[in-house]
UniProtKB/TrEMBL annotation:
Keywords: Fatty acid biosynthesis, Fatty acid metabolism, Lipid biosynthesis, Lipid metabolism, NAD, Oxidoreductase
Family the UniProt entry places it in: Belongs to the short-chain dehydrogenases/reductases (SDR) family. FabI subfamily.
Protein name: Enoyl-[acyl-carrier-protein] reductase [NADH]
Catalytic activity: a 2,3-saturated acyl-[ACP] + NAD(+) = a (2E)-enoyl-[ACP] + NADH + H(+)
Cited PANTHER family: ENOYL-[ACYL-CARRIER-PROTEIN] REDUCTASE (PTHR43159), ENOYL-[ACYL-CARRIER-PROTEIN] REDUCTASE [NADH], CHLOROPLASTIC (PTHR43159:SF2)
GO BP: fatty acid biosynthetic process
Pathway(s) served: Lipid metabolism; fatty acid biosynthesis
Major enzyme class: oxidoreductase
Enzyme Commission identifier(s): 1.3.1.9
GO molecular function: enoyl-[acyl-carrier-protein] reductase (NADH) activity
Length: 274
């Protein structure tokens, strides 16, 4: 059911790779709710993904951009306003990559060149994006920027290696930039800490399948899927949440607030523990 929550709003959605990605679901939901937007991803990711299918489905244009490149981001915001016919109302930052994880390098042995690449792609890109938008005055007052994160920024998950530190930086940038952009233009910036989700990127992490099942049994509501995350992001893009900013918002079925579940205790043979 659609509610026209984003009727008349213009946006930029990054990171849609295939139909399993959260950004893909956000684009579908934003379109359903009446928004118009451009899609963007790095040129190499676009060659690997199916973004043209999504563009056709949502009537969107694609503007390739390397999120680590200020010139590319400047072009993205300038052209997006031209294509959409005005300033931007919402932005989804759904960008994450760890070379250390891809190459299965343990956290304590991190390759620092790879580490810095991960920081640039997955966290600093948000700062660059916001800085460019601010200089161009490209986002309308009461606009909304949402970046996707994960609870490894607060708790240690050994398999998440350097991405845990990188996500912590991403969340800090959202808070710090959220203050400045809020004071100047009433632009709100939040991060959504999503459940383990069966995306192409997430499934590539060692041990992901087992942890997905574990988290699903801890969370009282179970894991939140990509489609429900899209619903949540759309609510944050809408005017219904216009006073919410600088927050890290957990969207995880209650996992982040649950110490242990009876399901896990039973599996461990602890159901009668005192």
């Amino acid at each position: 059911m659609a509610y026209n929550l984003l009727k008349g709003k213009r946006g930029i959605i990054t990171g849609a790779l295939d139909e399993n990605s959260i950004a893909w679901k956000v684009a579908e939901k934003a379109h359903e709710e009446g928004a118009t937007f451009v899609l963007t991803n790095a040129p190499i990711a676009m060659r690997m993904g199916e973004i043209k299918v999504l563009a056709e489905k949502t009537g969107s244009e694609i503007i390739p951009a390397d999120a680590t490149n200020v010139d590319d981001l400047t072009n993205l915001f300038v052209k997006s306003q031209e294509v959409l016919g005005g300033k931007i109302d919402f932005v989804l930052h759904s960008i994450g990559m760890s070379v250390n994880i891809r190459k299965k390098i343990p956290y304590a042995e991190s390759n620092y060149e790879y580490f810095m690449k991960g920081i640039d792609v997955s966290a600093m890109s948000l700062h660059k994006m916001l800085s460019v938008a601010r200089k161009l005055d490209a986002i309308n007052e009461w606009g909304s920027v949402v970046a996707l994160t994960y609870m490894a920024a607060q708790r240690t998950y050994p398999f998440y290696t350097d991405m845990a530190d990188i996500k912590a930086m991403l969340e800090s940038i959202a808070r710090s930039f959220g203050y400045h952009y809020g004071v100047e233009k009433k632009v709100r910036i939040n991060t959504v800490s999503q459940s383990p989700t069966k995306t192409t990127a997430g499934s590539g992490i060692k041990g992901f399948g087992d942890f997905f099942d574990f988290a699903n049994e801890i969370a009282p509501l179970g894991n939140a899927d990509a489609a429900s995350c899209a619903d949540y992001c759309v609510s944050l893009f809408s005017d219904l949440t216009r006073m919410v900013t600088m927050q890290n918002l957990f969207h995880d079925g209650g996992y982040s607030s649950t110490g242990i579940s009876m399901e896990i205790m039973n599996k461990l043979g602890l159901e009668n523990a005192e």
